[in-house]
């Protein structure tokens, strides 16, 4: 006959670890590192001449290799929020929250893949040959628009839906939600003209992750 106490212990072990909130912190730190490396190696101007392809691209390659790890950490962060919601999860806001998070990752991966493909083609071409081609300028502009326009807008909607969930469920303080709304407005209307807009979502994720981690440790 099954032992109820043993079954309860097994179910308890399947719960999300208290330290899982570290995933959001890891995501933020990785994103700061990625964009820091790219910002120092690739010009912000999407119409640049491509001189950076002839320079040492080790930093760029390292940053692109970190993108998948940041993506996995972001998925864990989403899982932490859904676990914290529990039975309070609303289908509508949860769908928007999950969908925009996945779209943000997909566009981030797409932009990284385009830059990686450009670097691969440059390594197989004569010096300066690729930077003079239409393919390079198309790929460069595409990566810029996907990351700075579409991915950023998805990040804004993700923050709005998450902040709304925070207000209605109380899984975090309301001031974090208000900061999320403010950051989302910045990303929605001014991201194209602000060079540091890429850091808005990781900074907010870091803020909410630190709170969740501290709250979990207090409960323990």
Which short descriptors sum up this protein?
7 helices
3D architecture notes:
The protein is an all-alpha fold. It has one domain (21-219). Helices cover 75% and strands 0% of the residues. It is built from seven helices and no strands. The protein has helices spanning 4-13, 22-41, 58-85, 91-124, 134-169, 174-190, 200-219. α2 (22-41) runs antiparallel to α3 and α4 packs antiparallel against α5. The longest helix has 36 residues, at 134-169. The model is unreliable at 9-14 (pLDDT under 50).
Could you provide a short overview of the structure?
The chain is mainly α. It contains seven helices and no strands.
What's the arrangement of secondary structure elements?
Layout (H helix, E strand, L loop, with lengths): L3 H10 L8 H20 L16 H28 L5 H34 L9 H36 L4 H17 L9 H20 L1
Helix pairs in contact: 2-3, 2-7, 3-4, 4-5, 5-6, 6-7
Estimate the global geometry from the Cα principal axes.
elongated
Termini gap = 32 Å
The biggest sheet amounts to:
none
Strand content: under 5%
Beta strands, count = 0
How would you classify the helix and strand content by structural class? mainly alpha
Q: What is the number of helices?
A: 7
Q: Estimate the helix proportion, in percent.
A: over 70%
Could you tell me the mean pLDDT? 80
Please tell me the total number of domains. Answer: 1
Low-confidence stretches: 9-14
Order of helix and strand elements from N to C terminus: HHHHHHH
Radius of gyration of CA atoms, rounded to a whole number: 20 Å
